[in-house]
Amino acid sequence: MTDGAGGSVDTAAAHEPRTWGRWFGRPGRSLTRRLIWLASAWIVLALVLTGWVLTNQYQESALRRLGNVLADTIDQVVLVTNARPDGVLTVGDVLDDRTLAALSGKYWAVAEPGADGRLRILVRSPSLAGESLTIPGDLPDRLAGARGAVISYNDPDGLRPGGEGPLGAPLRVAASMKQLPGRTAPVVFLAGIDRSNIDRDTQQFATFTWTALLILGLGLVIAVFLQVQIGLRPLYALRNEIADVRKGKAARIARSYPLEIQPLAEQVNRLLDHNQETVERQRTHVGNLAHALKTPLSVMLAEAGTKKGPLPDMVRKQTEVMKAQVDHHLRRARAAARAQMLGERTPIAEVLDEMAVMLERVFEEKGVVIDWRAPDDLAFRGERQDLQELLGNLMENACKWAKRRVRVSAGPTGLGQMVVVVEDDGPGLPEEQREAALLRGSRMDETTPGSGLGLSIVVELTRAYDGRISLADSDLGGLKAMLELPAAEA
User: Fold this and answer.
1) Average pLDDT of the segment spanning 332-348
2) pLDDT value, residue 5
3) How far apart are CA 338 and CA 458, in angstroms?
4) Cβ–Cβ < 8 Å for 408, 372
5) What letter would DSSP give residue 174?
6) Which helix (H) or strand (E) element contains residue 412?
7) Residues 6+ apart with CB under 8 A from 344
């Protein structure tokens, strides 16, 4: 007889790799993704708003400083501007060297509203060199509505002599409408200054700000990812412990967890305890029922066995059928209750060795040799008694029909399943009879001892554990029974 050394029937399923897409894909029903997406969206929104506010505030501050400079220039021009008795305006010397050099980047002009509502330039600074400041069409109306106030605007084209050339630097222009003594018509004073440096500084500030915010945002998203992973690690551990209980690797939740999820772990343990108590009560009820039914049946069999005749024979025969039915249904009820239990684990090699030794003794006169192979770490996720009944029925059936040799092999198939294959070198079973052989009470040969319930018991126990049984031809020449059952992880 071969000892319990052997390999697996199939390879285990590969685990799903942890890719970035697993964490940063669409949120779906993943709590991790939802937390990361929510925090990342808030970070991006906050940083975008911060960048926009900072850039605009910097630009507004710079333009405000230019506005103050232009307002000072307008005040200087107003101080040296006089109206003669004939209404002609005269402008004295403005103490600003930049307004004296041609196209220097700082300019001023004095204008008055014309009959057509447009502003007509009366006097201009030497720096304009015959050019004019751009005046929007609605400026006179805006100035008339805010007389005495300074109104600023941007001139993106600037001064371009002849319409072309490199002097088209953007300008910041300020205008104010004043009423001078001795003149009935109002006077408009304009001042402009090159704002290229301000625009360049604002662009540099925006580039630096957005780069810094982008780096900050990436750092915050990575921090959120790490925080979620570390924060949810106890949940992952609890999930793995529950999976171990379900797979038969553990009987209870043993670890301690943070205050927020420790009650959940305790509730799971209470549920496991309640499930265990429920199964034990079901076993007790089934045992009581078995005792209550078997005792009267045994009495009826004993009484019928002491008498002869058609009636005692009929009572004896029907009582045996009733006893077989009671055993069958009680066994099915016990299997259904056990299949609901969590944390059960039965080593396959131990049961195979036990069954092989026992059956070789039973069929010693026939000379049957049972060759079995199973990995030492392979275990059935269920009760030992059920596994003994499953393997015992299949191996006993094989021994009955075998000439001399029975072969049993077991191994994992992946996805938490295992397979046990029982083969013999007997006459086998035609394909058209295999389905009928799995029916309750079916016997292919009435000359062979037995009730015909062996394979049906295997079928019902297998279904109770969500397994499957199938029959096929064996390369030994006889029948091959393949039994798929849930496996407990090593």
Assistant:
1) 66
2) 40
3) 15
4) yes
5) E
6) strand 405-414
7) 248, 338, 381, 382, 383, 488
Starting at the edge strand that comes first in sequence, how are the strands of the sheet with 171-178 ordered?
Answer: 119-124, 106-113, 187-194, 171-178, 150-155
The CA-based dihedral angle spanning residues 156, 161, 167, 169, taken in that order and rounded to the nearest 10 degrees: -10
Using the 8-state DSSP alphabet, how is residue 466 labeled?
T
Contact 329, 321 (CB under 8 A): no
Q: Is the pTM of this model over 0.70?
A: no
Average the pLDDT over 188-199 and give the result.
91
For 73, 98, 168, the CA distances from 192, given in Å and listed in that order, are 9, 11, 13
Q: What is the mean pLDDT of residues 25-45?
A: 82
| pLDDT tier, 330 (very low <50, low <70, confident <90, very high otherwise) | low
Element (H, E) at 192: strand 187-194
Residue 218 has pLDDT above 90, yes or no: yes
> What does the DSSP assignment read for 125-152?
-GGGTT------TTHHHHHHHTTTSEEE
Residue pair 381/340 in contact by the 8 Å Cβ criterion: no
- The answer to whether the beta carbons of residues 306 and 345 sit under 8 Å apart is no
The Cα diameter of the chain in Å comes to 158
Residue type for 452, please? G
First to last CA, the chain: 25
Q: Which amino acid is at 40?
A: S
Structure tokens at 357: 């030794």
Long-range CB pairs of 72-76 (<8 Å, 24+ gap) are 73/99, 73/106, 73/108, 73/174, 73/191, 73/193, 74/108, 74/150, 74/174, 74/176, 74/189, 74/190, 74/191
For tokens 């390879």, what's the residue? 11
Q: Which amino acid is at 308?
A: K
Summarize the confidence of residues 13-21 as an average pLDDT: 42
Burial 388-407, CB ≥16 within 10 A → b, else e = ebbbbbbbbbbbbbbeebbb
In one-letter notation, the amino acid at residue 116 is D
